[in-house]
């Protein structure tokens, strides 16, 4: 009787583990992204010359390029490395801006 109880326990364990594995596989298949658009159209658009080499500004007007403050400066300080004016003129700067 003890052998039968152990074998039933092992069989139950195997069935439960198989069920968990199948449900995880099913969840992974369902969660996988599906594309409605055929891949040939997606790849054709990428090869049509829509490649960008630099980030575009979010809006028109002056902009600043920021860098990490050097050396012993505090963590909340940034270094202004370049300012672009509204007319497109680039000004090289060496200023540091802190939160305080």
Task: Give a brief rundown of this model.
It is built from 2 helices and 3 strands, in the order ααβββ. With 100 residues, the protein is α+β, with helices and mostly antiparallel strands. The mean pLDDT is 75.
Blueprint (SSEs and pairs):
Elements: H1 2-31, H2 39-46, E1 63-68, E2 77-84, E3 90-98
Antiparallel strand pairs: 1-2, 2-3
Q: Could you characterize what this model shows?
A:
The structure is a single chain. The protein has 100 residues and is α+β, with helices and mostly antiparallel strands. The protein is built from two helices and three strands, in the order ααβββ. It has helices spanning 2-31, 39-46; strands at residues 63-68, 77-84, 90-98. The chain has a three-stranded antiparallel sheet with strand order 1-2-3, with no helix packed on it. The longest helix has 30 residues, at 2-31. It starts with a helix and ends with a strand. The model has no long low-confidence stretch (mean pLDDT 75).
């Amino acid at each position: 009787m003890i052998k039968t109880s152990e074998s039933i326990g092992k069989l139950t364990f195997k069935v439960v583990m198989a069920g968990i594995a199948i449900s995880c596989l099913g969840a992974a298949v369902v969660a996988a992204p599906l594309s409605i658009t055929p891949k040939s159209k997606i790849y054709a658009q990428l090869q049509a010359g829509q490649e960008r080499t630099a980030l575009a500004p979010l809006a028109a007007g002056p902009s600043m390029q920021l860098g990490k403050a050097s050396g012993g400066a505090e963590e909340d300080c940034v270094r202004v490395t370049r300012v672009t004016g509204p007319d497109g003129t680039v000004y090289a700067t060496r200023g540091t801006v802190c939160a305080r």
